[in-house]
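Data deposition worksheet. Section B asks for the primary sequence of the deposited chain exactly as it was used as input, without tags or linkers unless they were present during the calculation. Section C holds the resulting structure in token form. Section D is free text for depositor observations; keep each observation to a single sentence. Incomplete worksheets are returned to the depositor.
Section A, Depositor: J.P.
Section B:
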Amino acid sequence: MKTNFIIVACIIAAFSFGGCRTKENFDFKVKIVPQTYNSVTNLSDVNKAAEVINKRLIYFFEIPQENIKLDIVEPQILLTLHNIDTSKVRLITNVITSNNTLELWETYENSEIIGYLTKADNLLRAMRSPGSTLKEEKQPNPDLTGKSTVKTAVLDSRKQFSDQNPLLSILGPRITTTGEPLPSCMIGLANEKDTSMVNSYLKMDKIKALFPNDLKFCWDSNPYKYDPSKALYGLHAIKVTTANRRAPLDGSVIISAKPITGPSKSDIKIDLTMNAEGTTTWARITRENVNRCIAVVLNGYVRSYPRVMAEISGGNTEITGDFTLEEANDLVNILKSGELPFELKIIEEQIIKGINSK
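Section C:
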């Protein structure tokens, strides 16, 4: 049973006397468990999760190490924070249980996938109305200005295109005015309201069978930057190259990270340094993907997709993604503290007055 012990009187007192020299101290106690118990493989995973929590508390909130106490009663993690600012409690719980992930993926080029999209569109049309033809809509009588005729013709044209192109009517292909595929791993743009329908089409067994087995789709995290309406999102073609179908590189290989600002203060990048394993893998990936895109995927969504110009050796690289300084700092802190080995949830929490609680 979840227990929430919050001493309301103490919290009110803390805010009421906030301007006084004497400051009330509070302890925050939390019981943390795996989101699902079968996700825990051994005690070392629990210890790693506790280590990540400890680092996040230090990096994000600058809580002194002596104010952090972590006890492990497998598979539970018991956390006590001494002399805590109660206004930060909700933010603290969100940060320590957040399962942020950074992944670097190889990709397909748009030109390699556009033919499959056309085949999928054709099959969807056949599945939607096998053996049928479009019927002519009865046209209403035009008004004196003829506007009704024009409007109806436009609507009918759109409906006909939608009927003939179930997929490509909502996933706009990335092509030039002459019909040539644009160079990118972005294979289409869809309105945010249509992304779930695109997903449902692409997950259908008959449609999936048309595409390469090592292809998976991934949406942008932010709206397409050149769309003034900010309603369109890009869909990217990720190439799965590992036997376990996981990203060949992820945040676990990062040993240091820092935000850097370019000539323009809005041009914020993140500088990464990888360990020996990551350095070797990154050099191979960039060597084998010169003039191709690498997708930087944050929490399951594409944040940027730079094109590789040359092999990157030495284990240092920069990632872009239209980050704000706050977002960059948060990602840096996540990378510095490491990724959780499994998802966590809080089942008990207490805020108590911390009189000589150390």
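Section D:
The chain has nine helices and 16 strands.
The two ends are 28 Å apart (CA to CA).
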